[in-house]
Structures are given as structure tokens and as C-alpha cells.
Design brief:
Number of strands: 9
Strand content: 25-35%
CATH superfamily: Cupredoxins -  blue copper proteins
CATH architecture: Sandwich
Oligomer: single chain
Mean pLDDT: 92
Order of helices and strands: HEEEEHEHHEEEE
Structural class: alpha+beta
Shape: globular
Strand order of the largest sheet: 3-9-8-5-6
CATH class: Mainly Beta
Distance between the termini: 42 Å
Radius of gyration: 17 Å
Number of domains: 1
Bound molecules: copper (II) ion
């Protein structure tokens, strides 16, 4: 009896936070003639579902991450991208969000930060929301955009494994 009440209460809380819009947006991870890219919408609404789909072949290009990071955390120069997977740089930080120790495996996936859903941009000093694709072609992950456009007007994202893979999408208020 008590357990049932808890479940209902929990579902109510989660649902009350961000009303669903009924829309699903998709970001595809694609290999466009050897160039790895995120291909997705220019904007999403708070409350939309945001789905990430990996359409690339891991045997050829390895796995990916779709990791929300602050604008300032995106490695902008070739040198920054080269150093990305070294201590105190964002790619290694993302690996830590996923529970990676040294050369070890991903043990946390998705990596969650802040409110439930796509909400939180990470940095070297703060965890963000992130999904690791693994090696299966066609793998996907979906969760709601819960970022508040008043404070997080743009979702910036990065692949920790191929740090030149970067993208962004504007977050609009529901109904805007
Ligand atoms: Cu990648």
C-alpha cells in the first residue's frame, strides 16, 4: 500500500515539472562522406522529447557521446581538441561523468545532472547531461528537454570521443 502511494506521488512530481508538448525532435549522429556530424533541429521547445540516434558504424569510427556542455567548454582550436582527453579538459570530464576510470569502461549511462531530462550544461567543474552511444548502430536515447529557456537559452553539445563534433540548439518556451 505505502509503495503504491509513493509510486503515484513520484510520477505526479515528475510530470508536474515540465508539461510535455507531444513533440519529439531528433539529433542524428551521421557520417557524411567521412565527416562526423550532429544533424539536428535549430531549435526545440521546453517540454519536447529530444531523441539522439547514432547512425554511424562504430567499427569504423568508434562510439560517440552526446554531452551537454557550456558554450565556453567547447574546444574551439585544433590544440584544444587535441588536448581534450587530458586531465582538466572537458572530454576527460565527460568520461568521468560516465564513470570511466583510466582506460576502464563506461559504467554510468546516461550521465545525469540537475533536474531530470536534458537540462544541465556541464563543464570541467560541473556535471552535465550526457549519453554514450555504445557500439550498436542505430542505438538511440530519448528524454525530455527540461532546460528552462530563461536560464538556458541554448543547448550546446559535444562528442567527447570526436571533439570536433559540436552542435547547438536554441531552447524556446513551450508554445513559443
Ligand atoms: Cu563522436
Amino acid at each position: 500500500m505505502a509503495a503504491g502511494v509513493l509510486v503515484v506521488f513520484g510520477a505526479g512530481l515528475a510530470g508536474a515539472e515540465t508539461p510535455p508538448t507531444g513533440t519529439t525532435n531528433t539529433v542524428y549522429i551521421q557520417d557524411v562522406k567521412g565527416a562526423l556530424k550532429f544533424v539536428g533541429p535549430a531549435s526545440v521547445h521546453q517540454g519536447d522529447q529530444l531523441k539522439i540516434v547514432n547512425e554511424t558504424n562504430a567499427k569504423k569510427v568508434g562510439p560517440h557521446t552526446f554531452s551537454l556542455v557550456t558554450k565556453g567548454s567547447l574546444p574551439k582550436t585544433p590544440k584544444a581538441r587535441q588536448n581534450c582527453f587530458t586531465p582538466k579538459h572537458i572530454c576527460m570530464s565527460i568520461a568521468k561523468w560516465h564513470g570511466v576510470k583510466g582506460e576502464g569502461p563506461v559504467t554510468v549511462n546516461p550521465a545525469k545532472a540537475g533536474p531530470e531530462g536534458w537540462s544541465t550544461l556541464g563543464s570541467t567543474s560541473k556535471k552535465g547531461d550526457s549519453w554514450y552511444t555504445g557500439h550498436k548502430k542505430g542505438a538511440s536515447f530519448t528524454q525530455q528537454v527540461t532546460a528552462d529557456p530563461a536560464t538556458t537559452s541554448t543547448l550546446y553539445f559535444l562528442c567527447a570521443i570526436h571533439p570536433w563534433m559540436q552542435g547547438k540548439t536554441t531552447v524556446l518556451p513551450p508554445g513559443a
